[in-house]
Amino acid sequence: PCSEIILRQEVLKDGFHRDLLIKVKFGESIEDLQTCRLLIKQDIPAGLFVDPYELASLRERNITEAVMVSENFDIEAPNYLSKESEVLIHARQDSQCDDCFQAFLPVHYRYHRPHSHDGETSIVVNHPDLLMFCDQGEGCRCFLRVRKE
After folding, report:
1. Distances (CA, A) of 13 to 6, 74, 113
2. Which parts of the chain are coiled coil (predicted)?
3. Beta strand 85-93 with 65-68: parallel, antiparallel or unpaired?
4. What is residue 15's DSSP assignment?
5. Domains in the chain with CATH codes
6. The model scores a pTM over 0.70
7. Chunked in runs of 10, what are the mean pLDDT values of the chain (149 residues)?
8. In 3D, which of 6, 7, 42 has the Cα closest to residue 128?
9. Distance (Å, rounded) from C-alpha 29 to C-alpha 116?
10. CA angle centred on 122, ends 90 and 17, rounded to 5°
11. Element spanning 55, H or E
């Protein structure tokens, strides 16, 4: 039987340049999470972008492990000329929680069309897909795939 999985996404910082923090907590069905790897597939809405050059720099400095899946997109394009993109992030085990993984992703707001309303725009970041692999030894491997519905 599957145990509860708690997914929490948090946007850190203010302004156009923010960080998306993704935390995943697993229940007790997986005995040894030390043998597990968690990959997060995060869709990035058109109102945001992830800078692939920034990701490469963060990978070099071992700050985060993330790669753009989407190709041929313009990071300078405004919201109304952009498409969704996709990022794969290798989550790391949380040193302060035995059953937890976390991942960090810098995101940036795109420019939007001017409008006469209050000047605020909402952007919805959907829950990611989670792909987990655990090597339990003795040739036993466990795969878990949690998709958003």
Report:
1. 23, 24, 23
2. none
3. antiparallel
4. S
5. 5-144 (2.60.40)
6. yes
7. 78 92 82 83 94 92 89 87 94 90 94 77 89 72 59
8. 42
9. 52
10. 50
11. helix 52-60
